[in-house]
Amino acid sequence: MKRTGFKRKITSKPLKTTKLAKVGKQPISKIQKVLWVECRRVANILYPPVNGITYCYTCSSPVEGRNKHLGHFLARTVCGAFLKYDMRNLRWQCISCNIHSGGNSAVFYKLLAEKEGQKYVDKLFEDKKKTIKAYDHYVQLLEEYKKITLAI
Ligand SMILES: [Zn+2]
């Protein structure tokens, strides 16, 4: 196909405005990627290893390396933006519980209620209904988490 001056004109205009609009604003996918790294760092602080070993929250098997997953109590596909990167909703899990058992949610529920109290669990279910502006919330969380991880 032959490129025409007409086509170039059409593509160059919106490109300029997109570039301008993105200055100072990272794409949400990038924020989410960075935020997830921070979540894992914060999780190491909030849910630290015991005698050097991190255990799966739901089956108590030791986890490390690729087997060390940060799993969601309320699944990230359904929990909404508010809880997706909320540390209350996250615990270390093994790949078997997190992936193969779909989060092992029944056991997750039981243990959370036992260890943190029923109110804690109920609050998570309440917060699941919250609708927020994802982007702004993620930026705010990222700041909060960085404060925690940088302080260590
Ligand atoms: Zn497990």
What is the gist of this entry?
By secondary structure, the protein is mostly helical. The protein has helices at residues 5-22, 28-46, 81-84, 95-100, 105-116, 118-127, 134-151; strands at residues 54-55, 62-63, 69-72, 90-93.
List the quaternary state of the chains: single chain
Structural class based on helices, strands and sheet pairing: mainly alpha
**Number of discrete domains:** 1
Number of strands: 4
Order of helices and strands: HHEEEHEHHHH
Average pLDDT level: 89
Q: Helical amount among residues, as a percent range?
A: 55-70%
Looking at the structure, what is the overall shape? globular
- Provide the β-strand percentage band: 5-15%
Ligand species? zinc ion
Please give the order of strands in the largest beta sheet: 1-2
Provide the gyration radius in Å: 20 Å
Distance N to C terminus: 58 Å
Task: State the major sheet.
Answer: 2 strands, antiparallel
Residue runs with pLDDT of under 50 for 5 or more positions: 4-13
What's the helix count?
7
Features:
152 residues; mainly alpha; two-stranded antiparallel sheet; 8% strand; binds zinc ion
Describe the structure.
The structure is a single chain. The chain is mostly helical and 152 residues long. The chain has one domain (27-151). 57% of the residues lie in helices and 8% in strands. It is built from 7 helices and 4 strands, in the order ααβββαβαααα. The strands form 2 sheets. Strands 1-2 form a two-stranded antiparallel ribbon. A two-stranded antiparallel sheet has the order 3-4. Helix 5 (105-116) packs across helix 6 (118-127). Residues 4-13 have low confidence and may be disordered. Bound molecules: zinc ion. The site of zinc ion has 8 residues, from helix 4.
